[in-house]
Design a protein that fits this description.
Blueprint (H helix, E strand, L loop, with lengths): L1 H23 L3 H20 L7 E11 L2 H11 L3 H16 L5 E14 L2 E13 L5 E8 L2 E4 H4 L20 H15 L2
Antiparallel strand pairs: 1-2, 2-3, 3-4, 4-5
Length: 191
């Protein structure tokens, strides 16, 4: 009986070691859909009049790869240094040859809330992120109550949600995010 307990202990220990080791080596890019969704939810809750009344109904997450020309336009619009622009354009062209592309991600949150005088209403909240050539995902804009906001202008001098850094880029995934990803992945295999 004692040998059986030891064997079970060793098997469980090895399983836990493999589980936690896999959590540390998960590619950050696999976490981006979930991290961008969490960041969008935090933005919504940070600007809502009555955050406690918000009930999330549905969330859609869509990524669109940008073409080479769109990426070049983005670089020209967002980088001021001519020397840096030239280097980045070359980097983007090399990346496209290796099938690495810039991307735009849209998160649409369908939610109900009691933020108006008429009672509970159903609304859409949309976040737009741009994945730059370095793999960072920055909140570019969002739409709240049928009004569009440029994220840089909106958060100038205001408290930024905890899932975004000071440049409004999504913070890197934590170990907890990786564990959550593994559990979701394993659960999806059982469906």
């Amino acid at each position: 009986m004692n040998k059986i307990k030891k064997s079970i202990f060793y098997i469980l220990s090895i399983g836990l070691i493999i589980f936690f080791a896999s959590a540390t080596i998960i590619d950050e890019r696999l976490l981006i859909p979930q991290l961008s969704q969490n960041a969008c939810e935090n933005v919504l809750f940070s600007i809502a009049t009555k955050p406690s009344s918000i009930e999330l109904n549905n969330i859609t997450n869509h990524e669109q790869k940008l073409g080479l020309n769109s990426s070049k336009v983005w670089i020209h619009e967002n980088v001021e240094s001519k020397k840096l622009i030239k280097s980045l354009l070359q980097l983007v062209e090399d990346d496209y040859k290796n099938n690495k592309t810039m991307a735009k991600r849209l998160i649409a949150i369908d939610y109900s809330s009691d933020e108006s005088f008429i009672g509970t209403s159903r609304n859409k909240f949309i976040c737009e992120y741009m994945q730059d050539i370095f793999g960072s995902n920055k909140l570019e804009s969002f739409s709240y109550k049928n009004k569009d906001y440029d994220a840089d202008d909106f958060y100038l001098g205001k408290k930024i949600p905890k899932t975004l850094d000071s440049l409004l880029k999504i913070k890197k995934g934590t170990f907890k995010d990786r564990i959550y990803f593994i559990f979701n992945y394993l659960f999806s295999l059982t469906k």
